[in-house]
Each structure stands twice: as structure tokens, then as C-alpha cells.
Amino acid sequence: MARPNTPDYRSLFLNNVPMFDTRAPVEFEKGSFPNAINLPLMLDDERAKVGTCYKQQGQEAAIELGHKLVCGDIKDERVAKWKAFCEANPEGYLFCFRGGMRSQITQQWIKDAGIDYPYVVGGYKAMRRFLIDTLDDMANNRKMFVVGGNTGNGKTIMVREIPNGLDLEGAAHHRGSSFGRFVTPQRGQIDFENALAINALKLDETGCQTIVTEDEGRIIGSANVPLSVYNAMQTAPIAVIEDPFDVRLQRLIDEYVILMHNQHTAHEGEEEGWNGFCDYLHQGLFRCRKRLGAERYQEIEDALTIALDEHLRTGDTHAHERWLSPLLEHYYDPMYTYQLSKKADRIVFRGNYAEVKAFLAEQ
Predict the structure, then answer these.
(1) HSE value, Cβ hemisphere, 13 Å, CA-based, for 68
(2) Would residue 288 show up in a list of annotated catalytic residues for this protein?
């Protein structure tokens, strides 16, 4: 018996159900879902021609043109890819923008090839609406705590460790600082919002009534925190981590130096990876130059160059302390201390990493 088409968006996202998106690549690139891949019915140029025909001659002529553009070997190749997906993911679904013509045509062509495969009722548009509503509901109807603290205090680590943490930086795929980018590109705005909403949905499923997130600005890299979430963060009580300077410094070495060197090397190979890693550090520091001032920026830049040379020659990362330490002292700490001073009335707890974690567990 064939599985029916589904309007159960909640189940699709909670269970990470595999889906294939039949929209054109240009639509997919603007945003889709973490558990979806793009296997389009029409490519961008084909979709543009059909769209023009629809406007000028109506639906029937547009459908006829679509069948002319996607036929023969082109059609066989696309159906073969869909069939392979269906066989590899027997519990999955397909979708288009609204769950209309493209879903129905794709479904029929797969059926003609011998497989009954269901589509998502309402398509991308309905699933996207469901996720936006989920995020707004979480922001408006759950108690929220914000984890604060100077750079290197492990705020993101804590949010990821506790069971009710909502990881904004993870969803954005960016750390929200001058050194925030990773080797792979940051998610686009829609992909960020969708990933964040799915995480919120999974938290909601656990029954937790209190959400914990990190103290973030409105923008993380190039991604804007959804307004409902950001507004909730602006009134939430704050628990501030206050770890010793040397502990914070080591966390930055682990994150900016060791992690990023390993990522670049794994992604680009030894030589290109080293060059990419050096560029990452120099570019990150360059973004701090205005606030540091020309003289201090040059001192730290020189220390970075020496540290990289020593790192390359010996494999020792300790020399990175000589530029990260003044960067913490003269750039990150004054900036965050000032920002936190404007939120002093919302601070409800201060302590080291373990103490803040224990406090949040009690909430």
C-alpha cells in the first residue's frame, strides 16, 4: 500500500525525514531545509522559460512547454536520480514550492518508473510557515535565560552542553566575532532561521519550559537573529560566566588556533590549509584594527606573524598567547564589559563556568 502525502510537518522535522526538493536550483539556494537535497524538475533556465510562457499564454501552454523542455534523455536522467533517492530513502518525501503542479508531475513520473512516493502537502511554503510560527511561539511563550560573559568564557560551549540550550551560533554556522567564520561558508538567512526553528521544535518536544541561549548581538556574521528571538533575549535574565583570564586565553587558542588549523588542513590539505589558516587569523585581526588603533594593531599583528612562524617551525602553539592575550585585554574585554554594563539590571547570577552551569540546571 502506497504511503499517503503528508501535511505532518512537525514529524518531518522532529525525525529528520529525508526529503528532495523539486524546485529549481536558484530557489533551493535561497533556502531550504537541513534534511533536504535538491533534485529539480526544471533547471533555472527551463523554469524561467516556463514562467514567461505562463504569464504570456497561460497555464496550459506553460505545461506543454515544460514537457517539451524536460523530455527524452533529460527526463530519463532526472527520473533516474529521483528513483535512486526513493530507493535509498523509502520513508522520505518530495516537495515543491506549494505542493502543486511540480510535486504532482514528479510524483507521477516516479510512479511511471515503478515507485509510489508521497509528497509534502503545501510544500516548501507551508513548511517554512510552520517553522517561523514554531520559533515565534518559543520566543513568546517560553521563559528564557541568557548566558553572558567576556570572550573565552565558554558561553557557546555551555549552551551546547545543557539539554535546554538553543545554539544561535551553531544554527548560523558562525561564531559571531571578528574570527567567527569557519572553513565552509556561513548559512544563508533562510537556512539559518530554518535550522534554528528545527532546534527549537526539538527542544519543545522534550517539554522544557525554559530556554537558554547565548548573549548575542542582532547580527551573527551575516545572519540576522529572528526578531521574536532577539526581542525575548533583550528582556531575559542573564547569568554571567567569570572564568580566570588564563582559562579564557586557552579556550581561544583551542578555538581560533588549534580547531581552525585542523579544519583548514582537513578541508584544503597541508600546504593550502596552512595558508588558509594564516589568512583566517590575519583577516580576523584586521577587522579589529579600528578599535585597537594603528599602533596597538601593528604590535599585535607583528606578534601574530612571529607566532605563526614558530607554530610552523615547531608545531608549538604557545606563542599565540602573545597576540591573543593583548587582543583579549584591549579589544574584547573593554567592548563586552561596556555592552554588559548596559544590561546590569538583568544580571541575576555571576560565577565560574561550573557554577553558572549548576545555576542554570536549577532553573
Answers:
(1) 9
(2) no
Rounded Cα–Cα distance for residues 231 and 226 (Å): 9
Distance (Å, rounded) from C-alpha 291 to C-alpha 318? 25
Distance CA 84, CA 99 (A): 21
CA separation for the pair 136, 232 (Å, rounded): 10
HSE, CB side, 13 Å, CA atoms: give it for residue 11.
Answer: 7
The pTM of the whole model exceeds 0.70: yes
Query: What is the amino acid identity at position 24?
Result: A
User: What are the b/e assignments for 294-318, b being 16+ CB within 10 Å?
Assistant: eebbebbbebbeebbebbeeeeeee
Looking at this protein, which amino acid is placed at residue 86? C
**Nearest by Cα to 28 from 201, 200, 194:** 194
The candidate with the shortest Cα–Cα distance to 117, out of 126, 128, 125, 109, is 109
By the 8 A CB rule, do 362 and 144 touch? no
Distance, CA of 192 to CA of 170 (rounded, Å): 9
Give how far Cα 69 sits from Cα of 44, 48, 50, 61, 83, Å: 12, 11, 9, 12, 20
Exactly one of 86, 96, 278, 288 is catalytic; name it. 96
pLDDT digits (tens, 9 = 90+) for 150-179: 999 999 999 999 999 999 999 999 999 999
